[in-house]
Amino acid sequence: MIFSNQSVHKFQNSFKKVQLLVFLLMTVWMSAQENFSIVSSSTSTTIVIDKKEPKVVQIAAELLQKDILSITDQKINIQNTVSNQCILAGTIGKSKLINELIQQQKIQVQDVQNKWETYKILMVHQPFKNVEKALVIVGSDRRGTAYGILEISRMLGVSPWEWWADVQPEKNEEISISITPKTYGEPSVKYRGVFLNDEDWGLQRWAALNFEQELGDIGPKTYAKAFELLLRLRANTIWPAMHSCTGAFYSYPENKKVADDYAIVIGTSHAEPMLSNINKEWNHKTMGAYRYDTNAETIKNFFDKRAKETKNYEGMYTLAMRGEHDSPMIVETDDTKAQVTLLEKVIEDQRAILDKYHNAKVPKPQIFVPYKEVLHYYQNGLKVPEDVTLVWTDDNYGYIRQLSNPEEQQRSGGAGVYYHTSYWGRPHDYLWLNSTNPVLLWEEMSKAYEFNARNLWILNVGDIKPHEYNMDLFLDMAWNMDSFQKSNAVQSHRIAWLTQKFGKENSQQLNALFRKNDSLSFTRRPEFMAWSSVEPVTKANETALTQIHYGDEVGQRVSAYKEISENIEQLSQQIPDAQKAAFFQLVYYPLMSTANMNFKWLYAYKNQFVAKQNRTSARYFAEQSALAYEAIQNDTKFFNDSISNGKWKYIMNDAPRNLPVFQKPVTASVDEVEETSFGLALEGHEMEWNTAIINSFAQTLPVFNAYTKSTYYIDVFLKGSNRLEWKSSVKNDWIQLSKSDGFLDKNHPEERIWVTIDWSKVPKAKPLKEAPLGHDYQLIPPSYKINSAIEISSNHQTKTVGVSVYNPQFSELDDFHGFVEDKGFVVINAAHFSDLTKGKAANFEVLDGIGYAGKTIVALPRTAASITKISKMKDESAALHYDFYTFNKGEASIYLRTLPTHAFFEGSGVRFAVAVDDASPVIVDFKTEGRSETWKANVLKNSAIQSFKTTIEKPGKHRLTIYMVDPGVMLDQILIDLGGKKSSYNFPKETRK
């Protein structure tokens, strides 16, 4: 038969279509979700790995076997040969069975092969003779395969914290998983891990006295458990514990073997060059002074020994050097240039030693950590070889000091970040609880990722506990940053984290409590509540929280923590027995301890304040402070002695370094009075209501503003010890009281009455188009101010409190949607802009879950160019616009609160430009230098405030505009002070109409 060319062409086209259809059908079939039964009454599944696989693959298989046992009480076999149904895991090039599947084209591995720590999970039907189906896990390298095996544990609902926080998986007699073919990796960050640091009070004591008593130290048994956790979290690096209380990592030969078994890369901190622990290993008697200018040969021999010892193990070598522990390098000269030259010589000699012991088969990255004074050397010209990773650091309080500029981003060695969620040092430690806001952690690491710091991420987690959540978040981001594009990804992540541990029915409520705690701890960490400092250690100080103005900041904080603690107590009663140990460790202890640390100090501040007025409640507040102190001791004892049958004995210490903040506060006593009476204290007044005061203004609450719906308090308090009944009445029905009567006794020595106004009943002033020119809000004319009173009576005595309301009608405010002056100031939360203008290179975005206002606003991308010329701002800068209204005119101070971030690199800044109405923009700079007093104040408050003066030309409507100068600056709040601002820690409540 003869075919024409046209017929052949048609046939070829048809054949190609059939091929394409078959390919598409195969693709759909292979990508379809399939169910794989692991344990059932009719299924016997095995785990199959090759004998030649690295040890970490065997370890991961045993962990999966253990996880399945913990769920089903059924132990499945691990073997080297396939069975009818099996989980087959192997590394390309190592596993004979995996290689056979590749050769027979039963699996495609182009998306895995030659990748870093990548793995693929898929179902293969009839992969071998007499094998019905296999769940195949194929890894690009040993860690990739191990991560893939442990991914099955994740799918089964086993938490990475199953051992370290006693998180129990749900029991089932039968288990199966749904599989859709998927490739995982490559990771966003190449090396990802933690630094075990400041271990003196927790991890070391727990290991030495409990978990690893046979060694009496943190050793291979403890590290094996830490490495297991890292594997489950898809991490690959650790900087081991290095204080003098702990044996140096390499002093126990088994440590490095265990690390290699678990495929964990060992690195060391900024103070430990060349995998050495100077703090523990350097012997002054036999080795002399640890200084390179006078003792270089001894130091080089020390480095040489460690490089030789570790040549066949994956290691990460820190170059350069500092002094012993966390101190500057010792040199005779103060000349920076000479110090730089010496440090360059150190690096040169270290690299020569590493070249001597080079092993091409074992990755050995080199890093340089410009921490503290080493950053100063780098900024002053220190040359670091091209292939060395620059590891940038935060300022110890969560704000990254510097990142790679565009030129540095081209370096072959790349960059990384060393970040703290635990710290010992000035201005104050935070070693006890995890108080770093997770959204700040996300924001700073997102910034680092944006500036290509993607080669190494290390998190200082102290003793691991209680840093479980932030450790998990940090390593999940490092694994796949694409899943964390926006700030709200943190909330989704934590809800999923809590759901996996405590069920969907509890996760939303728990997340809400954590968010509230995050917000409170952001404004003041629990370890900072004594207003003391370290280096040198100072005694507890007076609080900066006001108890007089703005609703009583101390009282508001007490109320917020009461709500948290009451909810946690209720939830703890609902948690099933199997989850109670995990709940105590991950929820109850951290949240209740934070609350009790606050109660301890807040009630002490209350005591000291009310004792000046000789209130009987001074005793009550002293007792509450003492009870909070005791609660911390009791909960810590329960943690150590009772949880999981003493498994965690010695792990938790509630007073690291025995700093003043951890001590029982000193409280004041009050004089005994013979005749029982009652007193009143009014918001805005330091002294109590006093019949001897003639000035009626002193007996009056602050003015209630119709536009801001003000609320104020009156404290009714007991003087003496006898019970008193009290009642109140109002002169006008538009005055509303939270409570109109009650009693006082020694167990209930005071009552706070909140006063609000029913504005629908308040007489209105005559409508005006605008506020009268020059209207002084502090001396309100009678036509705008309506006066009334509250009477409070007890024991045949009546006291009158004045009430003044400001309720004018300005027609221009009828449709006004903005911010209104209240008592001489305007307060704006930055995320509540009236409108915004997009910039040519950057736009403002809202970050949720961070800042004093709960949301901040930032110009992104951070890589956008700064705009410093005033003339260009209106045309090029992203801009925020805020409409506000004043009843006054004259000089005003504009305060901007930002987060205390640093400039990205030399040449960039931390600036906004601000203008009111048509005035020329003023540049406001938030940059701090080194470890200055300003920086110390900023990091203790998680806040940087700068101000400038301007003129409000007339009362009425105005517009505040904030222009981006530098991208990435996080704006939190704005306060416009026309003379009414009072001393406080926070800004007053937002004055939004």
Automatic annotation (TrEMBL):
UniProt KW keywords: Hydrolase
InterPro entries, alphabetized: GH115, GH115_C, GH115_sf, Hex-like_dom2
GO biological process: carbohydrate metabolic process
GO molecular function, one term: hydrolase activity
Top-level division of the source organism's lineage: Bacteria
Domain (Gylcosyl hydrolase 115 C-terminal): residue spans on this chain: 818-990
One Pfam family hit: GH115_C
Protein name: Glycosyl hydrolase family 115
Organism: Pustulibacterium marinum
